[in-house]
Amino acid sequence: MSETLFEKIWNSHVVVERENEPSLIYIDRHLIHEVTSPQAFDGLRANHRTVRRRDLTVATIDHNVPTTDRSLPMIDETSSIQIKTLEKNCKDFGIKLFGINDPNQGIVHVIGPQLGITLPGSTIVCGDSHTSTQGAFGAFAFGIGTSEVEHTLATQTLWLEKPKTFEILATGKRKNPFAVTSKDIILSIIKQIGTDGGTGHVLEYRGDAISDLSMEQRMTICNMSIEAGSRAGLIAPDEKTFDYLNNRKYTPKNYDELVDDWKNNLISDANSKFDKSFTIDVNKIEPQVSWGTNPAMVSDVTGKIPTPEEFGQNNEIQIESAKKALLYMDLKPDTPIVEISIDRVFIGSCTNARLEDLKDAAEIVKGKAINSNVCAMVVPGSQMVKLEAEKLGLDKIFKDANFEWRESGCSMCLGMNPDILKPGERCASTSNRNFEGRQGSGGRTHLVSPVMAAASAIAGHFVDVREWC
Amino acid sequence: MIGNVIKYERDNIDTDVIIPGTYLKIHDYNELATHAMEGLDPEFPSKVKDGDFIVAGKNFGCGSSREHAPIALSTCGIKAVIAISFARIFYRNSVDGAFLLPIEVDDETYRKIANSDQLEINIEKNEIKNITKNETYAMKPFSEIIAKIIAAGGLFKYKK
């Protein structure tokens, strides 16, 4: 029988399956961070449980960490307590932790692949919705809540309802692959299928336009699957995948054998059927800029802010949502996107803070300086990314242009560490969510690619980055 | 289960407005609850009463996997969220920890229920009675799996 890639991964991880019951699924890798794990460890202690597979569990600290000088004491006491709690929990339960001063510290979804912890065909969970990032390696990787973190710690399994499958077929070639990035592809997809288009489904991104992407670009796509409502998105592994994972710190010793097995098995069969399908021609995609307060409120850079009626198309709630979004964003319909001025630029997050993202942004920035009205920062996704970037001299390019060059962490993506927007500040951000208050109470977020963020920092407003390269 | 409605006429009420990121450092549930819905309605914690229901549009709870979202609402006294649809992680978190009931209704029911209406939810009959308006609506039944987890009182109790 023909099966999709997702069905193959699912079937090879079923421990218990009964009719009208959830299936018990084996979990190959469990990643942990400081925010969604404390109550799970409390639960283990209260019930006298241990961690079932310490060897398959790794932790890092990313959400709370300041991105400034780490040798200074932390000012925020509650953040400090949360970090110390994870350190204690990892020590007590014997879990490997990439702590605050570890050279492998970084955003959990960035370090998983970099360390070779993420493997094709595996099941990966983390108490974080952007775990979907790791689906780029052909893994079933998804975010879970703290109750499920506890369940995974205790049993290395989870009770799950089998999701449906959704094919996203990306065809054609990007007209300017430097300026039209994988971020623009995924924003275009979300714009069209909506923030709940993928609910209850695992997305499988397929087609030449996906094969064409590097691993880091594929991660950006899978990362934002959750913004379309899907807990997981995946891409079949290929030579690029196998090359990327070769010789990483935790790459398995029998890697070549594994690769042979993956090549034969980890692909959707020719006649396999998806529950839903959507096709996008990337040839037609322009650089994208979000204008509203959810990731489907997105425009071409050559476009204008829509009227609520244009956006809502006779749907009252949608029209009302657009009105509220424009009020929050302080934007008027029919304003050209390129006329929107910005105060801040954030190049970072699990969506776009890998080496290629920083290289591309640096290419735009080189020899220029940011607009005097703009504050801009670059926050590498991990300490490894930071080190590699510094070896290439990217830090110097950014600093010479007056960007701040920071230590790795989630930073300004989510407003829970010192990197936040002030009320009313408008930010071009390479992160994943433009929700109200996401980057700090009253902050206004526009989601863009790293090259768009870099060019906007220099211009002081959004620009058609295709004209910059 | 009888309670009064706090209605938000919005789609995509995300976890960042239900409990903004800055409060995810808080370990104590009661303290967390003082910031519930702060991103959308800072008055919420003072107006919510034990047993109340939230009514909202499509894709409620989209965004982050933070279980703090259903916990904050539940600790405030919210017993159910009635919405046209839910984001799946929020839905699952609500049921796993037996924090609150995520109840799906159709567009028409969503429109008929008004702020402050008193409702009686009967999950055995898949029915919502609007006591204020003397109307009865159908709710979408829980899947068999979810119904079992709810009946057991959460994920861990379900498989004990």
Description:
Helices cover 32% and strands 16% of the residues of chain A. Chain A is an alpha/beta fold and 469 residues long. The longest helix of chain A has 17 residues, at 77-93. Chain A is globular. Chain B is an alpha/beta fold and 160 residues long. Helices cover 31% and strands 19% of the residues of chain B. The radius of gyration of chain B is 15 Å and the shape is globular. Chain B starts with a strand and ends with a helix. The mean pLDDT of chain B is 96. Chains A and B meet through α3, α5 and α12 of A and α5, α7 and α8 of B.
Main interface: chain pair and counts = A-B, 51 and 44 residues
Secondary structure: number of strands of chain A:
19
Proportion of residues in helical segments of chain A: 25-40%
Main beta-sheet annotation of chain B? 7 strands, mixed
How far apart, in Å, are the first and last alpha carbons of chain B?
26 Å
Anisotropy-based shape of chain B? globular
Q: CATH fold name of chain B, please?
A: Aconitase, domain 4
- Based on secondary structure, the structural category of chain A is alpha/beta
Rg value of chain B: 15 Å
